[in-house]
Write a structure and sequence with these properties.
Elements lengths: L3 E4 L5 H12 L3 E6 L3 H14 L7 E3 L8 H12 L4 E4 L14 H25 L3 E6 L12 H21 L3 E8 L10 H9 L9 H13 L7 E4 L7
Parallel strand pairs: 1-2, 1-4, 2-3, 4-5, 5-6, 6-7
Bound molecules: NADP nicotinamide-adenine-dinucleotide phosphate.
Length: 239
Amino acid sequence: MNKLALVTGGATRIGAAITAHLAQQGREVIIHYNNSAKEAQALSESLQTTYKGKTFPIVQYDLFNWKKIDGFWNDVVQQYGVPELLVNNASLFHPGRIADTSTELMESMLNVNFMAPFYMTQAFSRTATNGDVINLLDTAITTNATTHVAYLLAKKNLGEFTKMAALEWAPEIRVNAIAPGPVLPPPDKSIDHLNAVALKTPLQRIVEVKALLSALDYLLTNKSVTGDILFCDSGQHLL
Ligand SMILES: NC(=O)c1ccc[n+]([C@@H]2O[C@H](COP(=O)([O-])OP(=O)(O)OC[C@H]3O[C@@H](n4cnc5c(N)ncnc54)[C@H](OP(=O)(O)O)[C@@H]3O)[C@@H](O)[C@H]2O)c1
């Protein structure tokens, strides 16, 4: 249980909850962030106070620059050791239908939501002799009607990659994914918006963060599971 973990986008929202949960389980966690330096620092300090003797380093990197991820990863490994758990949580969620998807929008969605986790996972597999990768997807990967075309294409790719990587890197490394439904409203939307989305799911309920954490625990502890996409979405993928 004492594996070193790295959580991308691990300083805020769902990422911060995952970081704190892994820390509670006795892991040391490298908290990756891009813009949220203050949140990363505060989370690291609070975890260090709670779990004395453990370290929770913070590392900044803009995942748009996926071509330099190898260098970033090597620096992390040199400074803090080899992570045996990688959670690809960081994400960008910008709207656009096909007609209004500019090349810039497509590039940023693919870079952050697909190319970066792809090359983070590849870098992880070069250094870890065994371990786990967890990719955060979106329940919408089962659908085609969307206002977020480039985002959804990137998440669909990440879902397919999860299965391919699981096969290529077994038996040493397990690669699984969680596809959440409505957990937290996007920063520009209210809780009412999330409630309205949740009411349309079969279970008519928001997905609690603790439900996501229990999905994470299942994937990390069940050693017979790899290449799995666990829908934690109040049944939304069934629609
Ligand atoms: N919220 C939901 O209800 C929901 C639903 C379905 C799926 N999901 C998935 O669950 C995961 C977590 O969701 P969330 O709502 O907590 O995510 P979020 O708040 O939208 O983003 C998480 C983190 O991604 C990081 N990030 C964005 N662009 C980056 C870049 N260029 N380089 C590095 N990091 C970057 C941000 O870090 P900084 O703040 O440091 O810049 C941010 O803290 C995501 O993968 C999301 O797609 C969430």
